[in-house]
Amino acid sequence: MSQHLAGMALPSITLGTGLRPPKDVHRLVGWALDMGYRSFDTAALYGTEAAIGRAIRDSGIDRRELFITVKVRGNEYGCRARVHQAIERSLDALGTSFADMVVPHWPLPMVRALPSTFAQMLDARAEGLVRGVGLSNASSAMVRAVRTETGEWPLVNQLHLSPIVGQADFTRFAETVPVGIQAYRVLESGSGLMQTRVISELSRQYGCTPTQLLIGWQLGLGHRVVLGASTQEQLGANLDTRPLELAPSDSQRLARLDRFSLAKPDPVTHFEL
Q1: Is residue 206 among the annotated active site residues?
Q2: Cα–Cα distance measured from residue 240 to residue 227, given in angstroms and rounded to the nearest whole number
Q3: Is 180 helix (H, G, I), strand (E, B) or coil?
Q4: pLDDT tens for residues 225-266?
């Protein structure tokens, strides 16, 4: 048995809600809903679930039109009761009876609980708490372990992915298995990527902004993206982006910007409860 991404109707663009005060998130999600955003990524660790729930209720938009992703923290892994309670707490905070997708926040291979936690999330799906189960920051080996343990592929793998964090090993792997990629940190804010000559030249060549180039490239590869924003202008610019089909030589120019073999922090060693 396998999950099917197409059947889950996961939108191409999702608004990420981490690293912002709840008051700001409530305002941003309200703006986003008015503009047409229908997918939101949150986590217990972010402390933004209640703010998202309020914004959705204030909007009057039917919950069934939305796609909401929640995450379970590492200190809940490996115990069916804790995993289910963590999901239920997130649902209570959001004011909804189900989540569209749940993912373990980090793979934490050192605690050896990812496959069992994924299985427990599948149990939550059977109970109607969630509609789909994905992974976050997982390597191809971790995905294979989950598949071996449960017989199912994750719906998506949420992955730090950009020209400077190319994740070539996983993107090649994903071409051979039914696992979608949902890329985050695609703009690499604060890294200087947007100001590089390559990005400037390709943006002019394709008649778009650097933001539209980097998002459009990911969409053109068939990836979904999770994007942050702090203003209405940024929300609009993100949503206005269309998939870009870059010439192979131009894709190679972007790929040559890759500075890291793995995202930072490294998901193999990163420990976060």
Answers
A1: no
A2: 13
A3: strand
A4: 999 999 999 999 999 899 999 999 999 999 899 886 555 677
